[in-house]
Write a structure and sequence with these properties.
The structure is a single chain. By secondary structure, the protein is of the alpha/beta class. 20% of the residues lie in helices and 31% in strands. Strands 11-10-13-12-14-15-20-19-18-16-17 form an 11-stranded mixed sheet, with helices on both faces. Strands 1-2-8-6-4-3-9 form a 7-stranded mixed barrel. The longest helix is centred in the first third of the chain and has 11 residues.
């Protein structure tokens, strides 16, 4: 097998073997604690600009299938695992993971000490790294990674958003009783749910759209640059703001759009959408040391005191003190007490930092989609 190197900006070097596409890729190196769901992780647009380290040691066992993708292609910059298993076993599998990564030109490395790497990132914080399959010039690679931009200040939304509006009509499905239909979306429109929802695509996951449909929403997905006037001209009952990659502060066009939408229609935001709501209300965001990436994050609902186990993927957080009473804290992370949910004190607007669509992950928080519908239908 081809040798591969992972070199961090601080000079730490890990050597392993390539099982993906033979190329070089630069990205912020972050670790994900999910035990399953690598296909959903690879295809989550929120990972644009990042190299993913899986803490679970055995990856590839169940191959790749056509159902478990969260977008139209993988968006990760690179993939790092302890042990890759090319021999997959699952009745839905169509391809091994290595071939899938090669097909999508994503470099991947196995055979490195992911426990040591995870501890380093936990202690020192996430940092930029370069993954090179084939190239062994360590001095050149280190120079290249140290000259690369960080995640702060980069607008990655424009690289993952859709190019034009489309209708989404597929709901949550059960593989044995209700396999996914074809096509998944419809550009021409048609009959839909009771509540007309405009979903802003900042890097939206398909299972979010399925959950919206499942609670009775007629969903139209629009590009991130869609103006407030264009959205309101569609006469929506509600606005949904999706997840997405990177730093929210550079996405100034979306922040201004949200400001103009607040007070006009109910708004629900997830992940990056949550951060953009915080900024639109006059708050600030900050970079977390190593972020939250995985399917096992404990969050407390401060109203009910109920603890939810949640799926998360973000490197930035909202500073509640900066909101100065314009929004109230509704959920907190029990690991580091960072903000996990907000609600406007004046308008029908709420958001969560975590992923209630749970793909991959637990289902503790999918009640939030029903809460959005209740906000659109207060009677």
């Amino acid at each position: 097998m081809t040798k591969a190197l992972l070199i961090l900006a601080d000079g730490t070097t890990f050597e392993g073997e390539s099982f993906g596409y033979e190329t070089e890729a630069i990205g912020e190196v972050v670790f994900n604690t999910s035990m399953t769901g690598y296909q959903e992780i690879l295809t989550d647009p929120s990972y644009k600009g990042q190299i993913i380290v899986m803490t679970y040691p055995e990856i590839g066992n169940y191959g790749v299938n056509k159902e478990d993708v969260e977008s139209w292609r993988p968006f990760v910059e690179g993939f790092v695992v302890r042990h890759y298993n090319p021999v997959f076993s699952n009745f839905r599998s169509k391809l091994d993971l290595g071939s899938y990564l090669k097909k999508n030109k994503i470099p991947a490395v196995e055979g490195i000490d992911t426990r040591a790497l995870t501890r380093l990132l936990r202690d020192k914080g996430s940092q930029i790294g370069i993954l090179s399959a084939g190239g062994q010039d360590k001095k050149r690679l280190l120079k290249k990674v140290r000259e690369a931009p960080t995640m702060v200040g980069r607008d990655l939304v424009k690289e993952v958003t859709c190019e034009r509006p489309y209708r989404w009509k597929e709901g949550v499905w059960n593989l044995r009783k209700n396999p996914p239909p074809t096509p998944l979306f419809d550009k021409e429109g048609g009959e839909g749910g009771r509540f007309k929802v405009i979903a802003y695509d900042f890097g939206i996951k398909r299972n979010i759209l399925r959950n919206l449909v499942d609670v009775g929403c007629d969903v139209t997905v629009v590009p991130a640059s869609t103006t407030a006037n264009k959205a309101l001209a569609m006469k929506p009952d509600g606005i949904f703001l999706s997840n997405g990659p990177g730093d929210p502060e550079p996405v100034t066009y979306a922040i201004e759009t949200i400001r103009q939408l607040i007070g006009k229609v109910p708004i629900f935001g997830i992940c990056l959408g949550h951060q953009l709501i915080g900024l639109s209300l006059g708050g600030k965001t900050y970079k977390l040391k190593f972020g939250h990436h995985g399917g096992n994050q404990p969050v407390m609902d401060l109203q009910t005191r109920k603890v939810e186990i949640t799926a998360q993927n973000h490197g930035f957080a909202v500073d509640t003190d900066s909101l100065k009473g314009r929004a109230e804290l509704t959920h907190i992370n029990l690991n580091d007490h960072s903000v996990e949910g907000l609600r406007s004190t004046r308008d029908p607007v709420f958001s969560v930092q975590y992923h209630p669509e749970a793909s991959p992950g637990p289902h503790d928080a999918n009640y939030l989609f029903k809460r959005f519908v209740e906000m659109m239908n207060p009677c």
